[in-house]
Amino acid sequence: MSHHSHAVLIALITVLGLAACAQNSVAIPSQPFGRTPRGEKVTLYTLTNKNGMSVSIMDYGATIVKIVVPDRNGKLDDVALGFDHFAPYLTQTAYFGATIGRYANRIARGKFEINRTVYQVPVNNGPNSLHGGLRGFDKRIWKVEPVESDNPAIRFSRFSPNGEEGYPGNLFVSVTFVLTDDNRLQISYRATTDKPTFINLTNHTYFNLAGAGNGSILDHIVTLHASAFTPVDADLIPTGEIKDVAGTPWDFRTPTPIGLHLKETGGTPVGYDHNFVLTKGFFSNFDLAAEVEDPKSGRVLKVYTDQPGVQFYTGNFLDGTLTGKGGKVYRQYGGFCLETQHFPDSPNHDNFPSTVLAPGDVFKSTTIYAFGVK
Ligand code: BGC
User: Fold this and answer.
1) Residue 16: predicted pLDDT
2) Which residue owns the Cα nearest ligand 1 atom 10?
3) How many CA atoms lie within 13 A of 217 on its CB side?
4) Residue nearest to atom 2 of ligand 1 (CA)
5) How far is Cα 45 from Cα 101, in angstroms, rounded to an integer?
6) pLDDT per residue over 174-213, tens digit each?
7) Ligand 1 proximity of 310 Cβ (cutoff 6 Å)
8) Residue 158, preceding bond cis, omega within 30 degrees?
9) Please, are residues 106 and 344 in contact by the beta-carbon 8 Å criterion?
10) pLDDT tens for each residue of 43-66
11) Residue 289: which residues within 8 A CB-CB, separation 6 or more?
């Protein structure tokens, strides 16, 4: 292709992308990203703010593909683990950047009960069900909708029919991403059902504040505003105990390098993969849940949420077999996740905050990933 026709093609793609979101107060450029084995087109949308920060999200899995943010010297880097191309997203099992549903994290043996009916959802992680089953929300194409907003914003929505992946209720679900000029990425979820069901939604971005693929996150300094966590069994199912973090390797109430006590957590593979009980996070409050700092780049991430818990996961299962952006390999502890959500396996623990969604009720939740420098 000549240089000229290439430029025309790019202009055309941009115009088409803008036209698709014409109702937006802020136009959202888009580009083709790939195709699923079912033949569905996958499109990548990019939100950009006044500081040059950008967030790219594809409609497959309503998945965050890129988060480009400045370091303390203004140097831009992509801090979200993932891939340059679409194909590896089909085979990876790390859930990089994806929207997770209907039920984030694990449900023991894939079993739960609602109104004396027992439901069995697919078991896909040892004896348990993980992240919505065999073909959860992360493996579906979402519809794109315009958003009325002064900031760059995009909404993804889908209809999840009664019985999808074994879950009851016709569910309408949407997730809206807004990027503000103070470098905050706001993610809001909404869902309704026509039968009582369980729901737990989150985003599964792996962050490395030094840039995706640039070494381990063990030197990142973390604060978690959580005075308790939910211990787990060998298959990562909560035992039901709500345990005080004091005197344990799970005490991140003051800034602590991730690697300082990581080995003491035990588990196979060793590392953090636990739900932290947020100090005042019970729905009515919108709280600062976590703060992370990379001393080298100076990048800081603050996480705010209305959810009761956050799954702090240190990429323990990454094993160097995934080659990511720019040919960089993702090794163990190459990224961390702060998955704001309800507690794992809540349907089977009466002492955990309820994850029931009833007809007539609206599930609503918001999390903010706020970027800065120090
Ligand atoms: C879970 C991990 C799991 C990872 C990737 C996290 O939410 O807690 O156990 O390996 O997701 O699936």
Assistant:
1) 46
2) 317
3) 35
4) 273
5) 21
6) 999 999 999 999 999 999 999 999 999 999 999 999 999 9
7) no
8) no
9) yes
10) 999 999 999 999 999 999 999 999
11) 224, 225, 226, 278, 281, 303, 304, 305, 307, 310, 338, 340
Contact present, 302 and 288 (Cβ < 8 Å): yes
Return the ligand 1 atom nearest residue 202 CA: 7
pLDDT confidence bin for 26, thresholds 50/70/90 = confident
| Segment (H or E) for 274 | strand 273-278
| Per-residue pLDDT at 1 exceeds 60 | no
For residues 66 and 80, the answer to whether their CB atoms sit within 8 Å is yes
357 vs 363: CA distance, rounded Å? 7
Mean pLDDT for all residues in the chain: 93
What phi and psi values does residue 179 have, to the nearest 5 degrees?
Answer: -110, 120
HSE-CB of 311 using CA atoms within 13 angstroms? 26
Residue 188 has, within 13 A of its CA and on its CB side, a CA count of 13
Report d(CA 374, CA 372) in Å as an integer. 7
Beta bridge partners of 78: 68
Chain segment 214-231, per-residue pLDDT in tens: 999 999 999 999 999 999
Query: Bridge partners of 73?
Result: none
Please work out whether the CB of residue 322 comes within 6 Å of at least one atom of ligand 1.
Answer: no
- Confidence band for 287, pLDDT divided at 50, 70 and 90: confident
Which residue's CA lies nearest to atom 7 of ligand 1? 105
| Res 279: pLDDT | 87
| Domains by residue range for the chain, with CATH | 30-373 (2.70.98.10)
